[in-house]
């Protein structure tokens, strides 16, 4: 798969590196082309350039810039992004008095929905934002004997297929979570998890499978 990455920071490097290891062709783009060149060299990308060059490179484009900048960037590149699958991994988060806080209201008000509105010709999916960037540096992320589940939201079936193929190639398990109207829930879940880690806890301990409870009964229809 040919993938253009918008951004040259930690998430761009972590996901880009994972995709290069999985055999995909990646081009890193940034406003600072020197930074894009450095990230591309570190991960073994096929090339680097400006944001427009990365947006036009492949059928799949990752938006890996600060969440508040993502909709505006998508609007600026709307013509280049038309007809492409756009992956939004951003997390709208800011420091709060009790820990990290969500900067959108959740639900339908999500960065992903704003990106889709700004670039109406693109097929937008919300994905890869729940885990910390360090997880994507693992060769094939797996925990407690199971491959990492990667939740995503997408309205377009073609976008869902691209995400599924990409996640599979990374050795992870795609986890469809509905359309973009639910993307805000993924963004809120990411902020919640960061807040739990910030306080010294483990988010995974809050979500055990009901099947693991003593005396659990399988009531699946």
UniProtKB/TrEMBL annotation:
InterPro entries: NAD(P)-bd_dom_sf, P5C_Rdtase_cat_N, STEAP_metalloreductase. Coiled coil: none annotated. Gene3D superfamilies: NAD(P)-binding Rossmann-like Domain. It holds the Pfam family F420_oxidored. Residues 2-92 form the Pyrroline-5-carboxylate reductase catalytic N-terminal domain. GO terms for molecular function: oxidoreductase activity. Keywords: Oxidoreductase. PANTHER family: DUDULIN-RELATED, REDUCTASE. This is NADP oxidoreductase.
């Amino acid at each position: 798969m040919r993938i253009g990455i918008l951004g040259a920071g930690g998430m761009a490097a972590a996901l880009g590196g994972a995709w290069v290891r999985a055999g995909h062709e990646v081009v890193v783009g940034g406003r600072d082309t020197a930074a894009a060149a450095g990230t591309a060299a570190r991960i073994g990308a096929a090339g680097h350039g400006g944001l427009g060059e990365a947006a036009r490179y492949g059928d799949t484009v990752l938006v890996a810039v600060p969440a508040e900048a993502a909709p505006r960037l998508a609007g600026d590149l709307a013509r280049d992004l038309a007809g492409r699958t756009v992956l939004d991994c951003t997390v709208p988060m800011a420091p709060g008095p009790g820990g990290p806080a969500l900067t959108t209201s959740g639900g339908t008000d999500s960065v992903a929905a704003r990106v889709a509105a700004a670039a109406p010709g693109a097929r937008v999916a919300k994905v890869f934002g729940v885990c910390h960037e360090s997880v994507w540096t693992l060769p094939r992320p797996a925990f407690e004997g199971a491959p990492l589940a990667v939740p995503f939201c997408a309205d377009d079936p073609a976008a869902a297929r691209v995400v599924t193929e990409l996640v599979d190639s990374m050795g992870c398990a795609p986890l469809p979570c509905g359309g973009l109207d639910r993307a805000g829930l993924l963004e809120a879940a990411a902020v919640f998890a960061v807040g739990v880690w910030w306080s010294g806890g483990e988010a995974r301990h809050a979500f055990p499978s009901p099947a693991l409870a003593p005396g659990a009964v399988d009531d699946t229809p």
